[in-house]
UniProtKB/TrEMBL annotation:
Transmembrane segments: 7-28
Alphabetized Gene3D superfamilies for the sequence: Tetratricopeptide repeat domain
TPR repeats: 83-116
UniProt protein name: Uncharacterized protein
Superkingdom in the source lineage: Bacteria
Alphabetic keyword roster: Membrane, TPR repeat, Transmembrane, Transmembrane helix
SUPFAM superfamilies associated with the record: TPR-like
Amino acid sequence: MNNTLKIIFATLSTIGTLTIIIVLWELAFQPLITTDNNPIPDPTPSLSPSPTSTPSPTNPNVIGISLEQRFSSGDRRLFTNQVNRNADQGIEAFKAGNYDEAYQQFRQAVNTAPSDPEVQIYLNNSQARKSGKPFILAAVVPVDTKQTNAEEMLRGVAQAQSQFNQQGWF
């Protein structure tokens, strides 16, 4: 396999601390051209929306979810409607830097919920941390609009990450 392909595969599949960046679909895919083919002007930065504003793609609190709640570095569940005690314990161990315990908890979490891509990613992250050679990748998925779409995207990330780990490329 040539080096370029290895680099591309390593970048796409990652291993290590997978930083999952969650943004609204509208924020992630804003149109670059308006209907009259003029570029959209740079937005004026706003530190806080006015209390009378309504949610919109440019408002950071669309659908009542703050910007901080859209990001995870393995420190919290993104899909809060899913309960998995082992995943929660794994997250706590991971945050504390106890990667061996995190790995064991995430392994049990994957056995409990094998179709949950989030716990598979966290299992892979703890494995990479245990190895001492983690990579970091940001994945952007539309969790706020259709959870199933986000889960499918994360399944692809988890699968590639697992294959990367199995090849021992870290």
